[in-house]
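Pasting as-is:
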Amino acid sequence: MTDAPAGRSAAYTILTTGYTLSTGPGVAATVSYIRDGDHHVIVDPGMVAGRDRILGPLAALGVSAEDITDVVLSHHHPDNTMNVGLFGHARIHDHKAIYENDQWTDRDAEGHELTPSLRLIRTPGHSAEDITLLAGTAEGVTAFVGDLWWRPDGPVQDPVSPDQAVLRASRRRVLATAATIVPGHGPAFPATQDTPH
């Protein structure tokens, strides 16, 4: 059985490429936009130098904050969630529930599909609650992994991980499916045998 979504109709744009050298000071999230049919998805609207780093590139695509239907939070660290309030009309997805207006709907993220091309899986390691959004695109599967990888070079040993063995197992799971990885604080990179795991 594969984790890959059945569909291949999603397309994505990285709105802002994040950065960090350690756990601060000076940290920004990689914030991504995914479109699949009528679904307009933001992944990890976290810390950035200014809201325009998210809203400006989104507007350049002809999309407003009000158009966003879904926000996926890979985990609950503030550097990946700080700007979730920009998208007040969206459903918010995390590891255990969907939140919309005043409605909290419990569901496990594992295997949950936003669309046939957008699937959530549990990938603990950076924290116990980490999830990854797998997007089936025309070019292959892209994994939006939060801080499972901070940037293309890892770090190999995550300094805040509660369990490095769990982190490595989650990384191997993603590498078995993804062609491209979008990390929490750096540019997208190809998933290869040389990717830190």
